[in-house]
Amino acid sequence: MNLDAHAALLPKITEINQPYWDGCAEGELRLQTCTACGRHRFPDAPACPNCLSPHYSWQVVSGRGVLWSWIVMHQNYLPAFADELPYLVAFVRLDEGPYLISTLLDPPDELRCDQPVEVVFDRVGERALPKFRVIA
Amino acid sequence: MPNGPRDVAIVGVGQTDHGALYTKDSRRDAYGLAAEALRLALDDAGLLKDQIDGLICARVDYNRMADVAGLRTPRVVYGLEGSGRMSGVAVQHAVALIRGGAADTVALVYGNNGRSVKMRYGGEGGGPTVAYDAAYGMTSPGAYVSMMYQRYRDLYRAPEDALAPIAINNRRHASLNPVAVMRKEIDVEEYLASRFIAEPLRLFDYCIINDGGVALILTTAERARALPKTPVRVAATAASADLTNYYTSTDFFAAACQDVATRVYHESGLGPEQMDCLQIYDNFTPTVLFTLEGFGHAKRGEGWQWVREGRIGFDGERPINTAGGHTAESYMQGWAHHVEAVRQLRGEAGDRQVRGCVTAQYMCASPIVTSHVLVAENGN
User: Fold this and answer.
1) Percent of all residues in chain B with a pLDDT value above 90, rounded to a whole number
2) In total, how many domains does chain A have?
3) Is the whole model's pTM more than 0.90, yes or no?
4) Using the beta-carbon criterion (under 8 Å), do B195 and A45 form an inter-chain contact?
5) A97 contacts in B (CB within 8 Å)?
6) Structure confidence by residue, pLDDT tens digits, A24-41
7) In whole angstroms, what is the distance from residue B196 CA to residue B179 CA?
8) Any chain A CB within 8 A of the CB of B175?
9) Which residue of B has its CA nearest to A90?
């Protein structure tokens, strides 16, 4: 993996998303959570998609979810991933509702949709990136 | 639905010779491609430029296009983004504008120089997850469709060659289409031997990237009857969105497709069995399965079997993408599918003509699902 190129691909840390990245660095998955109705959302957004409230806090979530689906990328799109080909990309539905794109660490040979997964944090330079491991 | 005074028909279609444009190191201007398509569509309709009072542009900017084409004083003019979902939306808007009386004759103009500018899709619209996705090497709509297909094949036990009939059908039809880009036929072995892009999708499951332009002209059915060619009446059109940060729809767009299907079948008084040909937005081959199932042509989970039984050829029982679709004719983001529907309904499709084609259905399963039912006014 070209670590410098990979680090350059990570989302910019902003005033708004800072708690998400702080959580990753501390080994916690934190999501923006609506103060009015409790809905979790990802990525950060200026209003709650359920009740439109602008008020939120960052809450630690379970880090558990299911593997909705996955692909194995063979095409060389991003130079940072050139020497990782082919690599797995996962689409995970968190138990709290939001979906996110990620990857699996040490995936088993046989994968199934809806397999339970749990978050793990992997360092990329000075930052940490949430990835998932199949459980059970 | 009985013909009303403001019924709408497609009266002109024009598109570039996509195959001839598919050359190395081309440097084409999207506005030039769109202008050529507009000229061809006007000739096809038997209309003059100054009879156009509505202009909707996609992938090209409306102001520049109006200037390039010398259409500087339309009553209605605007632009739509250059995404595939917008071709059906544009037609639907033209119908609404004409029915409502805001314009009488609307030109829809699309130009795409994707090959010349070495377009790489992915990250369009700059949605908020794009940067998060790229951190894991996730990029393009094809990879999102592949995610849906992985789940589809897991749920419905579709085999390794389940998508092959769709890719093969497109190439077969392209071989009969003089303007298609990929005219060489392929078989199952060649399909299975093609390399993976975003596994489980292979090269032959992907749309091509090419240069081209397409234009459509719509007017009232009443005006259409005075024009030389068989009018193609828009018997029904509807849309329904399923918008998230991702291209992935967790039900493969099924609920939105069903909503649109119910409305277009009701409005047209025609059901799926009565469609003589289907033009299906096929950015990637799995989209055809999601569409067939969502619109009630095949049962849920059975689309992959349905396409295997020889019925989707131009000479089959329910022909699909008779010009070759996005994987073989051209990637004109749904626009060329509309041209093909009109040509089939007029009996102008040459070697790939569907016999006795009187009805056609366009369908696009995407974050904005659209469909129209088109009917040849005089039969053919």
Assistant:
1) 90
2) 2
3) yes
4) no
5) none
6) 999 999 999 999 999 999
7) 27
8) no
9) B147
CB contact under 8 A, B198 and A74: yes
What digits encode the pLDDT tens for the residues B164-196? 999 999 999 999 999 999 999 999 999 999 999
Structure tokens at B11: 């009266």
State the Cα–Cα distance between residues A74 and B146, nearest whole angstrom.
12
Kindly state the tokens that stand for A116: 């339970």
The ipTM assigned to this model is: 0.96
Question: Is the link from the previous residue into A43 a cis peptide, with omega within 30 of 0?
Answer: yes
Tokens 């542009």 identify what position?
B57
Residue spans of the domains in chain B: they are 1-119+209-229, 139-196+234-375
Q: List the CATH code of the domain at B1-119+209-229.
A: 3.40.47.10
User: Most A CBs within 10 Å: which of B121, B129, B136, as the mutation test of the A interface?
Assistant: B136
Which site among B132, B139, B197, B203 would you substitute to test the A interface, given the most A Cβ atoms closer than 10 Å to its Cβ?
A: B132
Tell me how crowded residue B320 is: count the other CB atoms within 10 A of its CB: 26
**Tokens at A107, concatenated:** 């995936």
CATH assignment, B139-196+234-375: 3.40.47.10
